[in-house]
Amino acid sequence: MGFWSKERLLRGVLTPLGATGIALAVSALCASWYLLCESGLAAFPLPAGELGAPLGESFGRLCELGMASRIGAAEARVAWLVCSCAIAGFLAIAAYIDQTLRILPDPLLALAGAPALLNAVISGNYFNLLAGVVQAGLGYAFNRVTVFGRGDAKLMGVMGLWLGLGGGLVAFACGVAVAAGATTFQMIQYGSDPRRTIALGPWLVLGSCLTWMFLVWM
């Protein structure tokens, strides 16, 4: 079974049409949010220093300015938005599969990481490259001492590439907090049942998308 085979990508959970629908829906949501903020709901990009480096400065402003110096301001906005929507779309598919099978497919994480890496390289925002390595390393450290999965560790690397170290850690904290709340609620409802486990990946993806939307809104 090849790395890019349909079986490795979708794990028999989704059809190609269904996966495409999920990706397009999430991408459209992200694009709509960006355009809504751009039209006057809030200022974009995040002013330098608004939330402090690296959460603010390394995210929107440096990406856009770095790209603008290479390909022009209008093209920079389009490139940044397209890459961000692609990341969110691929992660949404991975989250759906993880929720069903408790596995994050490596090909989908690679597909999400590619535009995140492209964003960092084109914009010259190399801090995000380091953030991806640091967060992946942190995830593998968690994997050694907790039930944190290797797929979750790889997902953390993608989150760092996409959001930077500060944004990635905020997304991680949000995802873990919501997952802990969902686990607690489930235990209250059904008791301690090992058959009723909660996948962490979907919550990390949700935290990442919400963090991205918050940074765009700011």
Automatic annotation (TrEMBL):
Q: Is Transmembrane included in the keywords of this UniProt record?
A: yes
InterPro entries (alphabetical): Prepilin_IV_endopep_pep
Which segments constitute the Prepilin type IV endopeptidase peptidase domain? 86-179
Q: Offer an example of a GO molecular function term for this protein.
A: aspartic-type endopeptidase activity
Listed name of the protein:
Prepilin type IV endopeptidase peptidase domain-containing protein
Q: Name one GO cellular component term.
A: membrane
Q: Which UniProt keywords apply?
A: Membrane, Transmembrane, Transmembrane helix
**Native source species:** Actinobaculum massiliense ACS-171-V-Col2
Could you read off the lineage of the organism from its UniProt record?
A: Bacteria, Bacillati, Actinomycetota, Actinomycetes, Actinomycetales
The UniProt transmembrane annotation reads 12-36, 78-97, 109-142, 162-185, 197-217
